[in-house]
Design a protein that fits this description.
Blueprint: E1 5-7, H1 12-23, E2 28-30, E3 33-37, E4 44-47, E5 57-59, H2 61-67, E6 73-76, H3 79-89, E7 96-99, E8 102-103, E9 108-109, H4 111-121, E10 127-133, H5 137-145, E11 150-157, H6 166-180, E12 184-188, H7 191-204, E13 209-212, E14 214-217, E15 220-225, E16 230-235, E17 241-245, E18 261-264, E19 296-300, H8 310-320, E20 323-326, H9 328-332, E21 353-357, H10 363-366, E22 374-379, H11 386-389, E23 392-395, H12 398-408
The protein binds flavin-adenine dinucleotide.
Keywords: Electron transport, FAD, Flavoprotein, Transport
Organism: Nannochloropsis gaditana
GO molecular function, one term: electron transfer activity
Length: 409
Amino acid sequence: MGAAERRTRNSHTHEYAWTHFLVFTGTHFLANEYRVQAPGDEIASYPVCPSQPVGRPVDLTHLNTMLRRPLLTVSAQPRRFVGVLMSRFGTRDASTLVVAEHSESKGTLSPSTLCTITAAGQLQNPVTVLVAGGKGVNAVAQQAAQVPGVSKVLVAEHAAYEKGIAENLSQAVVATHKAGDYSHILAPSSMRSKNYVPRVAALLDSQPITDVIAIKDQATFVRPMYAGNAIATVTTSEPLKILTVRTTAFEKAPSTGGSAATEVAPAVAKPEAGLSAFLSESVSQSARPELSSARVVISGGRGLKTKEHFQMLEALADKLKGAVGASRAAVDEFHMPNELQVGQTGKVVAPDLYLAVGISGAIQHLSGMKDSKVIVAINKDKEAPIFQVADYGLVADLFQAVPELTDKV
Ligand SMILES: Cc1cc2nc3c(=O)[nH]c(=O)nc-3n(C[C@H](O)[C@H](O)[C@H](O)COP(=O)(O)OP(=O)(O)OC[C@H]3O[C@@H](n4cnc5c(N)ncnc54)[C@H](O)[C@@H]3O)c2cc1C
């Protein structure tokens, strides 16, 4: 199938969408041909209007008779226009479901959920938030209900959702979608959503779009590709858009001022999917702020040479009330724990101040921190690529520069 083709399934929703599309006769738009596949048919190509010169505006009336059959596959030039028509004239009202993340132990809605609600607001649809969890989840739901812009909060309380087990959580999301028929499902980009969102997408037969950093319209989104080397603007013609949102790209929604209604989420017949079980977790305790949400992050790389030398960074971080991060090289050499890795395969951070110490600035590291508001680099190699993204660069030996800086702060 050619690149210009789009597929649509023969579902109830699609039939409605196309009915609306066909009602829209008399409208002119640029199209050369439609390819239509009915059940049991070969794919057949039909010109929109046999006498119509290629690329000229055409009358859609001709399509009425042709498309009044159960469609499996329809393709058209230009593809995007059809996608837009589908979403604009579909019979479903656009509505957005945000799947909340929250801290079970603290009973709080996560800042990443607030950022996702901001992203959802930009779609300008009514926003429903699904809060799934174990006992105590109602308190989190109350917090979600107070976020301005949220019109409804659905609470799924069950022990099966307590630890965010992907197989169980995805069932809750799917059941909620089936009852609400949302046009968009949004979740924060996170380790947790990397696990359950693909399952949700597979169960609902939709291609997810991950790591969205900007919303252009209902169907057009901006996302990084190739570890942030390219920024792609993608348009989807999926009737259901499933997105994960890079939370560093959206401000947190205010946590008070709203008054959404709270309801019980649609029931799942067997919330415990029985495919995986929670055994234990080991959470590292730190008095420092959490890496992803810290205002100041001080990261060290292979240049620190030993685990002990990271204490220099910790002393500076404590003075600046910041978090400590690390490059993958430092993590691979066991100088810092895995959860403090910043980059493509680690955490994505965008603090007010990011200080990179003894880090060369490989693209995989940059993709996790280059959206920081101010970047400062200390490196003894003046050619190090980190200086290309740094607002302030110090070419110096870190073993002199860091203690000196700590003294002066
Ligand atoms: C698929 C994939 C995913 C990856 N994901 C990540 C990721 O998420 N995060 C990540 O960080 N990397 C990631 N990497 C690895 C990445 O490519 C680099 O290898 C890594 O970031 C290098 O870490 P570094 O800058 O600490 O080490 P190096 O590249 O070795 O740089 C050390 C720097 O320290 C400087 N230095 C040495 N001594 C001193 C001194 N005394 N004073 C001042 N400066 C000094 C050196 O000049 C040098 O620039 C990934 C790679 C792949 C292939």
